[in-house]
Amino acid sequence: MAARPRLGVFKLASCDGCQLTLLDLEDELLAIAAAVDIVHFPEASSDMDPHGRFDLTLVEGSVSTPAQLDELRAIRAQSRTLVAIGACATAGGVQALRNFADHREYVRAVYATPAYIETLAQVTPIAAHVRVDFELRGCPIDKGQLLELISATLVGRRPDIADESVCMACKRAGQVCVTVAHGQPCLGPVTHAGCGALCPRFSRGCFGCYGPRERANTEALADHMQAEGVSAASLVRRFRLFTGWSEAFRAESERHDD
Hints:
Mean pLDDT: 94
Structural class: alpha/beta
Oligomer: single chain
CATH class of the largest domain: Alpha Beta
Distance between the termini: 63 Å
Number of domains: 2
């Protein structure tokens, strides 16, 4: 009988939320466990295979320290397919906010003995350092997209995850546009779908936690929001919050940062 594909799950700088999405699959997790060998998943088990060969590797978290960079390179060398999961792994995450200031000031302010802290000058996504075969966006990632990724990998095809905006999810759900109806600032037109338009469903504008979609016209959206009375400072905060180190959102926030 052919050996089952080997799955590894790793964490860098993150909150663990995307790994928990895998554990929260509940009934589907049993089917996954029957189809693959989960050989490295410290969040779920201390029983780890030391051989270090992975057919599919899921990596959560950003690269924030020299040790994490070394670990990531070792993971890449051992992995046939490597997938970055979540906003931290794909765009630096909330912790990348420190990239817009001097990281040494944060170290001095937070830690009683800064000399013991070893950190990189910038927080960066995984793709800044190694080849990534696919990215799952979100804070945290979506259960359905994760299942599609694993299923596609098992049969050797590319995951069928549409590159569309949050606005499309709003329209399919019959959701009233929070910008048109309530004048709320919303990053939905430029943000990758996957969350099911969660914030607009509760009458709140999108905060961009799935990062920019391909060819996102952030400049047009920001100019419209500013014309509607949104301050430059508010634009900077909104574009930087969850995925602010992604290229499109970073460029737009810097355009309004005086």
